[in-house]
């Protein structure tokens, strides 16, 4: 009743009430609010004058930046070195290729996010075709100069590790989740041990195993591509986490759903594929996207096995240049902006998806 | 007993297969020639030693060494595949055979030379741990002893940290180490006045100071508290490749001593009457043959990267480092190429 009354009052009144209740309810709270606001305003003002007002924009010489050091940001470092920041040590003459690959890759992501493409065949064509195109652009051959994976770096690597790391982990994760809830004891024990073992070690350890220890087990001279090894390690790692996400969805389904499927005479796989999984996956979308964002950011750990992800490419581009090496803060801020752009888009998309699908459910 | 026989046969096949495999993999040199490229483990990014330049190509004094070897063995300095390695990865990469050699400013010490399946053929760069102080903040500090009770910025997880503690204990000094993760964080902390001094290898200090607008505020202290002889590494039990790597170092240093440069090496080979130059350039003697290479091996290496001094000037001089210990023995340094014969 009370809330009903509040809802009918004008917005200005409501926000005033909110302010009074949450920020100015007592003298001590009022004082704290004012102090924190002043501090925030001061910090924001300083940051704004450093990052925008006094900053050096566009192409500029190091001397111009040096003259302003400490007072203004030097975005000239990004203007000068953005190619190396985005694509690492990929041969410069060929850098249109990773650029195009990133573009294609992002288009695949955007397209498969759109409802019109949600048909198994369309998605399959889109992903297989798009991935092959990207792989050809990056690796070369068939008319393009071959570029070994040791030279790949930057944004394409980060995107590739994150997206394929989730894509291929997904089926594996679903199987593990089903295995964990299976009534077959050996299968269940195996799934549980795998999930708990992998979740019990940090990603760095898994990468180390894949990149360093694995090489020692192989006979001398035999070696798999380092990037591939890291990619497989990330997939295996993510699978364990996704398995738990999917299991949460499986457990959230009312028993009636299983029983109804049984009553219809559906077999195990039919029950799972037609009744259980579509619902379980739908209700766990927020957790899935969360897991993907986590994975996207975790890829920066691959530098420990000398794979140059985007973050390291930024660092390397700035630090290894004698002229610009004092301006790495600007470089890191640029990296932050790019990461933020991707993660923010993803979390917004997940919100949209959730609303969209729950509307379906209501209808 | 057909089953036993079969098992015995497959076991024999397996053993033979393994032996054949080992014989084929053979010494590093065979593998390099067969592959047509030299696989060189380098630093992921250390200015002056190995770091991608403006064009994204690896450059530096450690990279030059790889190029010289590729030119001598394979005929072209471009036939190198660089494998950038982190500090944690470098030794395993060498042990597992992922790389042919490691040229990644690695300190030569007894442990790495004996127990790790690897050896050092020589020293390519003498470094040492030094200190830099902010003299605006500490105008009276002239030597290390003046830094007693001062705070020192140091990067975590490096031998630098241990050296600092060892030195303090041995000299009855107290330092307050302020530890940071990563080179740039440590540098920034020092520059913003977080500590009185900053310690790392002299080459690292030089790289920080070059192009720093407030360069005049900083003083590098004269003491060097550790020995860091940096050199390339290869796997043990590979005498052929060991000899090539060792004599590549000597050849490039001898070239500097004899005044043979990138520009004049061909002319020297044709005209010089100096027996050392003749042996170096293959005009006489059998140095190349002894190494299992042709007579022109050193000429190609010098054409590719110049002599040691030229490589130093191109890569290390821009950091503002003088030759110091890295000068030739007859110029007051420690570089002493063994005689060619």
TrEMBL record, chain A:
CDD domains according to UniProt: TM_PBP2
Subcellular location field: Cell inner membrane; Cell membrane
PROSITE patterns, alphabetized: ABC_TM1 (PS50928)
Keyword field: Cell membrane, Membrane, Transmembrane, Transmembrane helix, Transport
Gene Ontology biological-process entries: amino acid transport
Pfam family, one: BPD_transp_1
Main location: membrane
This protein's record includes keyword Cell membrane: yes
One function term, GO molecular function aspect: transmembrane transporter activity
InterPro entries per record: AA_ABC_transptr_permease_3TM, ArtM/GltK/GlnP/TcyL/YhdX-like, MetI-like, MetI-like_sf
UniProt topology in membrane: Multi-pass membrane protein
Residue ranges crossing the lipid bilayer per the database entry: 24-44, 98-117, 124-145, 157-179, 200-218, 230-250, 301-319, 331-349
Residues covered by the ABC transmembrane type-1 domain: 155-345
This protein's record includes keyword Cell membrane: yes
GO cellular component, one term: ATP-binding cassette (ABC) transporter complex
Family membership noted in the UniProt record: Belongs to the binding-protein-dependent transport system permease family. HisMQ subfamily.
Stated name of the protein: Amino acid ABC transporter permease
Biological source species: Candidatus Accumulibacter affinis
Lineage: Bacteria, Pseudomonadati, Pseudomonadota, Betaproteobacteria, Candidatus Accumulibacter
Automatic annotation (TrEMBL), chain B:
Domain of life of the organism encoding this protein: Bacteria
Keyword Protein transport (UniProt): no
InterPro entries: Bact_solute-bind_prot3, Solute-binding_3/MltF_N
Keyword list, A-Z: Signal, Transport
Residues spanning the signal sequence: 1-25
Domain Solute-binding protein family 3/N-terminal: 37-268
Gene3D superfamilies tied to this protein: Periplasmic binding protein-like II (3.40.190.10)
Keyword Transport: yes
Coiled coil segments of this chain: none
GO biological process: amino acid transport
Matching SMART domains: PBPb
Family membership: Belongs to the bacterial solute-binding protein 3 family.
Protein name (record): Amino acid ABC transporter substrate-binding protein
Source organism per UniProt: Candidatus Accumulibacter affinis
